[in-house]
Amino acid sequence: MEDYTLKKLRENVYQFETFGRGCHLYLILGDRMNVLIDTGNYEKFNSFVYLVFSEIGIKFEEINIVINTHEHWDHLSGNHFFKCPVCAHSAAASKIELQDEYVIRAKECDFDVTDLKTDIWLEDGMIFDLGNEHLKIIHTPGHTSGCICIYDPYKYYMFGGDTVFANGYVSNIYESGSLADYINSLYKLKTLRIKTIYPGHGPLIDNPDEEIDASLLGAKLKLDEYIKHVQMKNPEGRPTPSVYERPDY
Ligand SMILES: [Zn+2]
């Protein structure tokens, strides 16, 4: 199987779709700068460089900004190939800068976090003005603490990272994440007008309202289960720290 399948999603927006280890990468060609969303699995980097040059006609050195959607290895392990600034939300950037391989889950792929860095720490509401496209940072903690979605408020498409997936799938909650934060983030997304979501994994989403509602419902059920789990372990009421052990989502 090839590492990536290149798809043109719309004028100036490309997806490098992948299966298995790694995530989809997205390249946005801007009038002012070219932006890459996530760098994926470092083992697939050569395939990415080849496709960028042979199919799109630019060198990877012409990518001006990299944005990581969160602090998991499968979204950022290609970062060290880039000389351009690398950006992540501050809650993700702290784990990346301090090379927190527990949260980054680097051991899953024997990924060496030694040289990991971020150049620009992002906050909710910041906008990259590419001239022809606008990329607004929406902080959506839950799956991890530093998750972001990246939203074009004029064209109504959004890069969902690992926050929203097709088929009402509820994102896993990992070490720096929180199910309650995840639910709150989905409520936040419901305030936006979104026509299409380009997720970090799996198929594209062309019915965002329904999918966000389905994920929200699933996440609330999981939270109920989790609370019952905690209460059953300590029927006396006041939970002790030891019962906060997470069920395996
Ligand atoms: Zn993730």
Question: Layout of helices and strands, plus pairs?
Answer:
Layout: E1 5-10, E2 13-17, E3 25-29, E4 34-37, H1 45-56, E5 65-67, H2 73-76, E6 86-89, H3 90-97, H4 101-104, E7 120-122, E8 127-129, E9 134-139, E10 148-151, E11 157-161, H5 179-190, E12 196-199, H6 208-233
Parallel strand pairs: 4-5, 5-6, 6-7, 11-12
Antiparallel strand pairs: 1-2, 2-3, 3-4, 8-9, 9-10, 10-11
Helix pairs in contact: 5-6
The structure holds zinc ion.
Name the descriptors.
249 residues; alpha/beta; Metallo-beta-lactamase, Chain A; 7-stranded mixed sheet; 5-stranded mixed sheet; disordered C terminus; binds zinc ion
Task: Describe, in plain words, how this protein is organized in 3D.
The protein has 249 residues and is of the alpha/beta class. It has a single domain (5-234), classed as Ribonuclease Z/Hydroxyacylglutathione hydrolase-like (Metallo-beta-lactamase, Chain A, 4-Layer Sandwich), CATH 3.60.15.10. It contains six helices and twelve strands. The chain has helices at residues 45-56, 73-76, 90-97, 101-104, 179-190, 208-233, and strands at residues 5-10, 13-17, 25-29, 34-37, 65-67, 86-89, 120-122, 127-129, 134-139, 148-151, 157-161, 196-199. The strands form two sheets. It has a seven-stranded mixed sheet with strand order 1-2-3-4-5-6-7. It has a five-stranded mixed sheet with strand order 8-9-10-11-12, with no helix packed on it. Helix 5 packs antiparallel against helix 6. It is globular and about 65 Å long. The protein starts with a strand and ends in a 16-residue tail after the last helix. Zinc ion binds at residues 70, 72, 143, 162. Zinc ion is lined by residues 70, 72, 143, 162.
